[in-house]
Amino acid sequence: MKNKTADLSLALVAIIWGTGFVASQMALDANLAPFQIMTYRFFISSILMVVLFWKEFRKINIATFKAGALIGCFLFIAFAFQTIGLQYTTPSKNAFITATNVVIVPFLYWILAKKRPDKYSAIGAFLTIIGISFLTLEGSFTIKSGDLLTLVCALGFAMHITSIGYYAQKHNPIQLTIVQMIAAFILSMIAQLFTKNASPITSKGIMSVMYLGVVSTTIAFLIQNVAQKYTSATKTAIILSTEAVFGTLASVILLGEKLSLKMFIGCIIIFLAIIITETKLSFIRRKPSTG
């Protein structure tokens, strides 16, 4: 897989996650509890991954298991605090604060891999945050309990992306995906048992968790784990942050939300950030050919 193919694959993940945000909201609207939703989605994903990649599952060694389990813990933390935080803050704030993982990732990866982010990645990350704020924020931005919970979620996603970028270079990405899904499922089930806050699942809830489990979790994270082996963690974070753009479009199409001028400006700024990060403005610096 080449770098451009990896980046396009991550863009597909962003699209899937954008529509997944709508599915998560529908599951909450169906009165499913946060850990109940997570238990369903990661159980479905774990079963699918083991069945589809049984040969890879049997080859998992201790080192890969430890790496995948750690990634799975970060994944659980991210989704747990995002889903719980969504109950105590607005979806726009939830999406914006979650996207701050774009800023956190370069510094985490710098600490872990001793690889300093370049100025274009820093500029792209900064512009992405501005763009997502245009896209999602409404009214004043005040810190409430739900906002703080979502901030922990952003840190979880940053650690998840960084750890994949680090371990995907050393371990089989499919095996890592299998282990992290199982780890996230076990942690979600334990949390659900302790909270004891489950509701009967309706047809609307079944459709939502099936999409979350099959498409938004299994397919998306499998693509992410494979693609991240061929691109940087910082670039991954910026591309995946465009899920806010696709989430907004999905909300407009599926939930009937109106697309305002401010939201449109946010989309433009985010895609500008991706262009800067991807091209490093080489098309501007390129010298004209002489002949």
Topology overview:
Layout: H1 3-29, H2 34-52, H3 54-58, H4 62-85, H5 91-98, H6 101-113, H7 119-136, H8 145-167, H9 173-195, H10 203-227, H11 233-240, H12 243-255, H13 261-279, H14 282-285
- Contiguous low-pLDDT stretches (5 residues minimum) are none
Number of continuous helical runs:
14
Distance from N terminus to C terminus (CA atoms, Å) equals 36 Å
Rg of Cα set:
19 Å
> Strand percentage, roughly?
under 5%
- Number of structurally distinct domains: 1
The major sheet is characterized as: none
Mean pLDDT: 83
The helical percent reads over 70%
Shape by Cα distribution: globular
Number of β-strand runs: 0
Report on the structure:
- 79% of the residues lie in helices and 0% in strands.
- By secondary structure, it is mainly alpha-helical.
- It has one domain.
- It is globular.
- The two termini are 36 Å apart.
- The model has no long low-confidence stretch (mean pLDDT 83).
